[in-house]
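User: Before I run my own analysis I want an independent prediction to cross-check against. Here's the chain; please return only the structure tokens and, at the end, one sentence I can use as a sanity check.
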Amino acid sequence: MSQLDPAILSALPGPSTDYTLPSSLHSIASFGTTTHINKCGVPTYFLKYARSKKLIEGEYRALHLISKAVPGFCPDPVASGQFNDGSRYFVVASFLKDLRSGSGRVWERKLAEKLAKLHTEATSDVYGLPDSLPTCCGATAMPNPPTTTWSEFYGVHRLQFILDENTRANGRDIDLDRLGNKVVEKVVPRLLDGIKSSPSLVHGDLWAGNAGAINDSETGETVPVIYDACAFYADSEFELGIMRMFGGFSSGGFYKRYHELVPEKEPREEYEDRIRLYRLFHELNHAALFGGGWYLDQAKSSMRALIKKYE
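Assistant: Structure tokens:
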């Protein structure tokens, strides 16, 4: 795309002649393209466009939910819609100036404080989303039907769903079916039925590549930001599954401060196994998206370990 679609221009304030695209795109992926929009030559807005309506609508909703709960923690949503020719959908958000990777204990502690605020203050009566709008983890459109119990939501609408996605994407795997059935039917209720859970807003895909740092516009202070969210209401410990999967957050920085504000749920001796259970969703999602391989091996290893302990 060399010029902004008229539908995007009509969603932005002021004369359309103020807005231009940069000479090159930021990233091009099978499920979406990202770039920024210049206003009078200055980067002002972030733009993502894709063929998937669910991906764009889900990201726009996620930005709304997170920015309302913790202002400044993610890009502010500006507009969303469909190209004039109907070929693609777009989301426009505020541009994160001087965005960079987050690092160091101070940044990690600030991230922990913002995430704890999101998890403890942005709550709901149901898991998922009240209106069932899907949100996308990568290219995977996750169902979010309003559900009253966390065990049911995670077992049915995350694990069984992503097991079915693996079958659809990679074909039937009898071993995966067997392991998956045992985890959904035995391990999930064993580990999740007894915890004291309530629906908290989560980012949903918070690996280190979806968290960064910018300078506060008023103080110049380094502050954490998150982006590329697939937000929904979950048990807050779910957030930690993918954070553990890919690493990048230290026990003495992020986790120490986060759990000072959001303690591990009881029984604490099963905390690590719950995190492994939540990590399993992301292992299976990556297996579905990228053709099985190493991610599928990791998922099966996680399932065998959990089954051995809790079946």
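Sanity check: The chain has two domains: 6-94, 102-310.
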